[in-house]
Amino acid sequence: MVVTLAGEPSHPSPKMSVPQSPEGLDGLGTPDTLPSQEESEPAEYSPAPFEPQRSRHVTVDIPSNLLTTPKSRHHGFTPPLPPVAERVALEALAVPNCPSSEWVEFELDQFSFYISGDRYLDEMRSLQHMSTRPGHSIFYCDGILSNGGVKQYVQGMEIVELPIGNYGRKYASVADQIWVRSRRNHKREVYYLLKNPAAEYARFFTPFQWVADLAKHVVDFTSYMIDSDRALDVRIGSFKDDFVSWLLKTHGVAHRLPVVERWLAQHPSHDFRTAVATNIEFIWKEMHGVLGSRKLASLPLIREVMSCEQYKMFPTPKPLGGMIEASTLPGQHPKKGDDPQYPTIVTSYVKECFGNMVIGEMLRVPGEDASQTCGDTTHIRNDAPQDASRNPWVLSKKFLSRDAMGRIKVGDTISTPRDERGKTNTKWQPMVSRNSVDDGRWFGLVQKVHVTKNGHRSFDVTWLYRPADTPCGIMKYPWPDELFLSDHCTCEEGARIRIKEDEILAVHPINWFGNPNDSEDRFFIRQMYMVEERRWVSLQEKHLTCCHSREIVRLKPGDTILATLQPASDVFSEPYEVVKVFRQGDKLLVRLRVLLRREKMEPLASNIPRNELVYTDNLIVAKKSGMQVLGKCHVRFFRSDEPILSPYDRGGTGNLFFIRRRLDDRGECVPLGDFPTSLRQGFDPQRQVPKLKGLDLYCGAGNFGRGLEDAGVVEMRWANDIWDKAIHTYMANSLHGEAHPFLGSVDDLLREAIEGNYSESVPRPGDVDFISAGSPCPGFSLLTQDKTTLKQIKNQSLVASFAAFVDFYRPKYGVLENVTGIVPAPKNQDENVLSQLFCALVGMGYQSQVILGDAWSHGAPQTRTRVFLYFAAPGLRLPDAPLASHSHHPDGKQRAVGSLCNAEPFVRRLFDPTAFKYVTAAEGTADLPPIHDSKPDCCVPFPDHRLAFGMTTRRQWELAAIPVHPFGMNFAKAWNEGQGVMSQGDRELFPPAPSARTKANSQGYSRQHPNKPFPTMTTRCQPTDARGGSAVHWYETRPFSIMEARRAQGFPDDEVLVGGTRDQWKLVGNSVARPVALAIGLKFREAWLGSLSDDTKEPRLGKPGTPREVMSVVRRFKQEGEDTTTASESPYPSEPGEFENGLESTPATVVSSGSEASTPRGVKRRLSEDLDREENMIRRPFKEPTSRSRSRSASTAKMSQHAIDQSPTPKTTQQPGPTVVFIDLT
Q1: Which residue ranges make up each domain of the chain?
Q2: Which of 203, 699, 954, 1060 has its CA 20 to 30 A from that of 746?
Q3: pTM (2 d.p.)
Q4: How many other CB atoms are there within 10 angstroms of residue 1070's CB atom?
Q5: Is 777 a catalytic residue?
Q6: Which DSSP letter does residue 72 get?
Q7: Which residue ranges run through the membrane (predicted)?
Q8: Percent of the residues in the chain that have a pLDDT greater than 90, as a whole number
Q9: Domain 562-679+1122-1157 is found in CATH 2.10.260
């Protein structure tokens, strides 16, 4: 080795980064953190017993070297040479008479770099962290310094600088031009050229070399853009496509191109945004050293993803009416930490709706008539009539005279005394809205009049529901004189349930299709309430006849469906194409095309998507009475050489499939030729369709809003969040600049809008078509121990803010997400924020529904459950609840949310066959490489595959003491009060008793079961936490990485997260699972355009008319099993003898599940009797036998009846026959 003086070839010229200690680096986030209590939903966790896999051959993969400290720090280490101090080594290596001002270089071989302190004891570190993280300004180094043939082994050199050479566009790599400079040499030009790392340090140095080349290329690209007067174009979006295009063009010459291609090959795509964002501190340090601070002043890239100063915080004005103090709230006593809160800005309508709750004291209206700026906003009437003779709720309890009873006809609205609890077997308890009076009545729309031989009359009715009978509950409904027509009637419940003539209190005038402004002195009805779905829809003429009398849209050839042909035994549904529906005699049959799963056809092939199908010519014929149709699925054809477009590339979320191959005559899968024309394809993602302009409130990282956008009809134009990291993350992924951010409180945004201060970030009324919001959950979370603090009351009041945005902007559609705790326990119904939100939205005339969204049911490998309330403007089609695509995991239990006045829930979990098995944690991260302890903190293919938790030396020892088998072990199980497998020595590593982390019921230090989904991702990674500590990898000695958290939440790999590691984890944990957002977004697409198929010529743009997509309905027109539809009246063609004689033109298999049982009396429309499980409270319009039926005395039920049908609907011929199956699918 030789000494090189200035000007010679190995000098770091032509350009070399000058190490700096720029301002602001000490403010960057650090992974060091102390355990603390989580503030998110806990995950239910019950690991299955471990079952070892037997094998004749056992292999153990041993990593080459996973030391975290240099060998020299271990006892018994034998140095390669006698160790000397750095001063002694320099004297031995120095060139005689070398001027101190000249450049001097020595080679450094077999090196390792590390830091040392109380929390991190001699731990090795990657060089990109030098001077870019707190506590990393000084590195220690062991290695062999050499000059020519002279070698000296040195330990503990203090390293403070990291010069890197080969900057400039004529170099393709930094190659070996990397030096370090010690503190001893900081006043003279003496550098150590890095050669080969020590064996234990190789896993740290190899990825650093890739990062060094990344920094070089980014600096060169930036320099080029600055020289081209395009500095303002250097944004994070530039690294999606432009960066690699420039790189290949710049280094396209023969001798440099292979170097660049080898470097590019280590990264899985040409989108380098995540790599740049992850390494931005190191990149900025190199930019500062090479280009200088003056050239960087106008660079948007740094402000977008490092300093987060690209978008400025909106200056909060003086709080309206002053700050809210805890002492000003009724019944509240100031508590420790109860800091004053800003008031929540709402409209006057919302203030009146929510004003009588605890959160009402947080609400402020900017001006009495502020919400009138929307023009068509309808407000609560303050002058509601109080005169009993005019108020429709205050009515006489006298029964009608016989003459009046005789005039009752079909179409009249009557009232009858409510069944009393204790006197009858009813489950209904009287509930009255806060601003209403209890008149003890039930109301019904007469559908049929029955007259006995003795002349006694009774009536079949469709019940009219009051707000208190719905999820609105006892909360304040703005219109006391509004009723809802329901889909619950007495027609199929038998004579005992009918209303007798001596039970009628009155006949009431109804303003059908009315509104609050034109319905004085009488009830008005403008919505239909669908009982089992807890769903309000705009009233239509067809709703005035009871539900079983309406026409049902039937299955059509070309439809693709999910069905089970053996409902009693099938766990999963399979996709089929409907070829033909036809009748043979009294049998109704379906000819189906089998669509096979490619992963089952080619089991040895790798990386086959779960939702890829194979087209076949195999046909089967099934009896419709023997199959269960779960719903529609959508299939699209792609060429074998073209990419699968989103959302068909999401593993089956939304029950979307694709086909690239078909089954040939030899039974082999071959590329698809011409696309078959019989199958009605799913929608084309590239087709331009009218879009809904969206406002994304509490947008966070954007996983919710972008999941809705992924369906193709919502385009978020405005985004709001109060956290700078969230807004900058959101905008970093807004590639085309459509979104306008508002960095600030929702209160400031709404106040600006109400006061008319419109701008790009503050839309005008009429501009917003869609509003989405994931309002802060701590006010309702189970992990928030005290929800009565002023801060949490403020968080709860933001639900009222959401209602105010809806009131002000009056969008076409919208959706709110929150934790299940937003629905309180029955004892706290008087503070039910969700019910009050229903009152406010339905009171505005919006159609609405609440659903339960399980992340795992839509393809996310996570046990996260959330409540979603969505709505549609009057006259538009309300979206259906999304059909689950993935099965429940083993620990998925029955779950119900809310409580109605008949003791039934708002919504409960469904257990039905699904198209796919749930995704486990191991499956969701199968392509991620092992990072072991993650100490190198750099994963080139997946930049976010790093920790957000400070893995101190002690924490590492603790996690290493938790066994990896059986799966799901934690401290409590391993120690087991001294009876477990943990030794006493390992026990000493953990906190002593009585720490909550080490109690017998603690979940701290829990390893994830690889064959189950991840637990609910929270805002902090806390593997030691007693309640939320299920965050340790199943094999490796570390917590979950940020990348694993991203996979659990469904973040696409290419989307950017900004901020420090703990910020990034918080961004992920605060998000809505992307697959759930996509599934909901697809239902909005269906509602807006009219279909998810590709044959929609003209989008319906929200027009109703297509019936709801429900499951296969098996019902009887007659309670005794009679079929009122004859063969001649069947809508399906008849093919006599085809089934019996086997005259299929193509091979077909006949499938039948046997005969059906008779439908028991009193049971309303239900699923096939083969399905014996809980009914769906979201999608199914089927009634529980006892949930809505009214009680009647036995003597009344024994009256002989002779029915006279006064309905205008003509009778059909009655004849015995099998059940007719109607497939009610759009």
Answers
A1: 65-305, 402-515+522-552+1202-1216, 562-679+1122-1157, 929-1040
A2: 1060
A3: 0.86
A4: 23
A5: yes
A6: G
A7: none
A8: 65
A9: no
